Amino acid sequence: MAPPPASRAADSPPADPSRPAAGAPEPITVPSPRDHLHHHLIDRRDTPRGRAWEPERSRRGGAMDGAAAVKLVSGEAGYVLEDVPHVSDYLPDLPTYPNPLQDNPAYSVVKQYFVNPDDTVCQKIVVHKDGPRGNHFRRAGPRQRVYFEPDEVHACIVTCGGLCPGLNTVIREIVCGLSDMYGVTKILGIQGGYRGFYARNTITLTPKSVNDIHKRGGTILGSSRGGHDTMKIVDSIQDRGINQVYVIGGDGTQRGAGVIFEEVKRRGLKVSVAGIPKTIDNDIPVIDKSFGFDTAVEEAQRAINAAHVEAVSAENGIGLVKLMGRHSGFIAHYATLASRDVDCCLIPESPFYLEGEGGLFRYIEKRLKDNGHMVIVVAEGAGQKLIAETMQSIGKDASGNELLLDVGLWLSQKINEYFKRNKMTINLKYIDPTYMIRAIPSNASDNVYCTLLAHSVVHGAMAGYTGFTIGQVNGRHCYIPFYRITEKQNRVSITDRMWARLLSSTNQPSFLCNKVVEEAKKEQERTAQLIDGSPSHRKLDGKVEGPNSGDTK
Question: Which residues does the record give as substrate binding sites (predicted)?
């Protein structure tokens, strides 16, 4: 639990002549990291409001980037709460209303349904006896007081980026949560991603219209990459009278939602902007996992099983399966562990080489001589540097992601060429189930997970929180600032026990030199230091980044 908020005598913030008029951008300053550690804020959601806190800001080329306001609360024993914005931060005189859930018969059996305002969730669950308590996030769930009356709520839902199992379940549960728990009747679906806001493509969503969509793959709203025009989007939100925006998408989409939040705040609109992180690759940091990941791993088993059948049924048979994972190899990693039929797993985080002692070709040759067959799983982002030596880059997609060269076809060709040179007959079958996996409905586990995410984000928006994304951290749902899930990507650690378990299962070589191992260990230590309590926002390191600057070393 968080330390109790400090009591304040005043009920409203005093006028400050140095602050600009309403609607005008506020001055931006670059604070010291020490200022953040000792800057005490109070929770004004469920307690009497006191003196307004000053959001701490930093400059990136003089422009807002969706993560300008950082709210930190420090406490005893190294406790740090990374809080999320609230509509009352910039609209201090808003009225509150009793939560309709207190009169909902479905929830009357719950002993303590409303979340304590001081409840927080720790990011690092394993701590040492004398170590700091570390970073925390505000616990998700319904509050006793809400900042939106059901009759005034006009919500919208948008899905962006690639497909993922569970998208329709999240849409369904946001609609049903708003309707069944809070009595909201005006809910719009924005079609075709961010472009749908200003192209005026919308559909009305009701519990009846979304009743069975969770049984279908994809998204009933459609999706697209790119198309983010902040001014047009916020103009549309303002013109339509929308006051709750639910954005479902990956790190780029969440970054765009952060920019929308900043523009909404600049205009002084009573609008809650909330995100639900979506990535089938499970590459969003902080959270335990992303929805759809379990389904993807389960479905990947079908492709691996097929490859295994093909391999054992032929002389020197090789089954090669390419799975999703642009920069993070979690699907390949977990599918390999679950299968136990895989002899080699190649992921982006672990460089490999083909020729020479300890290389992939020698390992394949040895495995075929010992077992007569072999199954290889490769993530789509693996080996890109090796491929780039022989092929040219093919550009970027509409979201700005580098288009990857097909490692599966390339590796198939290289393996065939090697064994042809060595006059050894092989029978290689290549399977790419990418679009089959991402287009299926979510399984039972992911359906439950999507439901909890959707209900939790609805509770947060109704309580007035904004500029946040919902996520599960150490098994508990919490509200996370946008900047925390967009500042880096979650990647497989090749120096931890889970990767060691995979190496033990496949008996493959590590392909690692000492330099790669040391670099991986340093990255893991740096991440651990961030979790141990020092604010992880890149802008708190005392460095100022321009909009086109590279990473600061």
Answer: 279-281, 324-326, 380, 435-438
